[in-house]
Amino acid sequence: MKSKKEKKIHYVQTKESRSLEKTPSFPSQFQNPIHDLYFPFRILFVFLFFLLFQCQSNGDSKTISYFKNKEKTKADIQSKWETLAPSGIKSLTYMVMLGDGEIYQSQIGASSDSKTERFKIGSITKLFTGIAILQLQESGKLKLDDPASKFLPELNLVKPKKEGYREITIRDLLTHQSGLPSDLANGFFLSPDSKEDEIYRSFRSLPKTLAGLERNEPGKIHSYSNLSFGLLGNIIERVSGESIESYFRVHLFEKAGMKHTTLLENLEGSELITGYSGIFWKTRTIRPVIRDLTAGSISTTANDMGLFMKAFFRSKENKGLLTSISFEEFHKTQIGPVANFEMKLGLPVMKTSYQTDGKTIWFYGHSGSLPPFFADLVYDPNTEIVSFVAGNTLGLQTGKLKSTNTEVMQVLWEEKMGIQPEPSLLPIMGNKGSVPGEEGVYISPMGIHEYKKGNPPTLSLMGFDVGLIEKENRYGIDLRVLFGLIKINDPSINEMRVEFETWEGNSIFTLYSKDLPKGVAGIGVKFTPDNRYPDAQFFGTFVTKESYAIIPKLKLEKDKRGFPLLTIYYSLGEMENAVQVPCQWENDNTLRILGYGRNLGERLTIGSKEGKPLIQYSGGEYRKD
């Protein structure tokens, strides 16, 4: 019997129940010496940060062909994942489907011989939630365009920011455009020792917490929302009359043949693999248990994910999880806010266009992060090619999971179709795209940015002042490190573009590339500080008494540029991340976070309790430290 600590690989081809085992050789050090060391902590923006700071050539030269060469394809895919784990990730599992009806899976790193190990897949859970909602529409119990308040009357307690907003629909919740706060931080994480009844009670109390919240205009902008999907789970329970775990188990997991998958924490016959975090050494983390079950709580195995995808694809023949009509609706581009430009979203799967032999094809997928767990799924419903990966460690290599999974998907496509797909080229802009932009301060979901004219002009992104070089009537990025002495020539960075334009009378910028559709990273909106501030007593650090808080503290201070500056501290995977956002003073007890997008446009209420200054934010109370 091998110990749990030993490094090994299991390779399984499920159709023929064949397996082979080998001991790999792993790199002894990280592959990215110039990598942004704080990148793993910037969880909220993991995709964009990777594109900007991976600083490693993807390799443009290719001398091998994968066409109809399964063994070579599988071996090279295994090699790609071996470079990430276990040197940077303690354990990693992946699954691919080559369009032949078979499931190929492997696990790398520490594993158990006694039990099947599950990995949490985070927000990939949202695909299951979307399928459940479509199932209920098929049975006539709801419609996507029904007002959500028909099933959640508690939504009527949410006050519109302005009068005249239309009602929020179920489709709005599914497509992240409800106008509700992106997340409700208070109570998001539960005790790692929570029992099932405690988890259920917390999950079902979510609608009650809506009282006193404020909503923005639905349909105006995409703002990724865990809160919306937690509410969708409550709708599923109320409409179906079943507990959420029972509904998922009977109508999704069992229907697909998934034996080692659950929304809750424990499942007989399998165990949740231990999570780790750390940069140069790894330590165990507490188990992440969340209230918003249907937003990100599923734990599963690579093989079960393969069974799920097979059952999902059978929907095309009305023999799977959905009818063929619902399967088409799931993948149909939904009508979205004009502010998100080229971002394409299904229900709620993300769509990315590629070019093959002069034709446009679409890959679909979703990523998940419930630190220290990370996962990524990408697939093509037409060829039934799939690539899935999950890891259990928050570390340096975490940010490479998604990009590596995209490379794997391209290899899989070539094996079946004989050509490797290329991300769609950015459209060449006319003269109106060459507007240089207005100098000043901008706010986006990535934080605060200053645009300064010069030769070249510069824009601050994630703490770096990057040069903007005119390309294709917009700007390309000139990224340098070590006091500007070394230019980073990474292909992903060379493909990045910054475009200035106007939207609803606002001067804005967007940042995008071949792999990052315009709008996915949000928009940067110019604002002018008005030099209005609350009383001095409300400046300082504020903390919450909540156990396991996802936001343990806030810091409010004066920014020299003329606005109240809020620092929000996130505790994720036992590591801390912070984002700074500008605010506007509205009245005697209200501050407004500026901008559009995730966690922007939201309200802070200030006051006092027991003689001490108090901030109320995201459903929680924060007292001055």
TrEMBL record:
In this chain the Beta-lactamase-related domain maps to 91-395
Top-rank taxon of the source lineage equals Bacteria
PANTHER family (alphabetical): BETA-LACTAMASE-RELATED DOMAIN-CONTAINING PROTEIN (PTHR46825:SF9), D-ALANYL-D-ALANINE-CARBOXYPEPTIDASE/ENDOPEPTIDASE AMPH (PTHR46825)
Protein name as it appears in the record:
Beta-lactamase family protein
Q: What is the lineage of its organism?
A: Bacteria, Pseudomonadati, Spirochaetota, Spirochaetia, Leptospirales
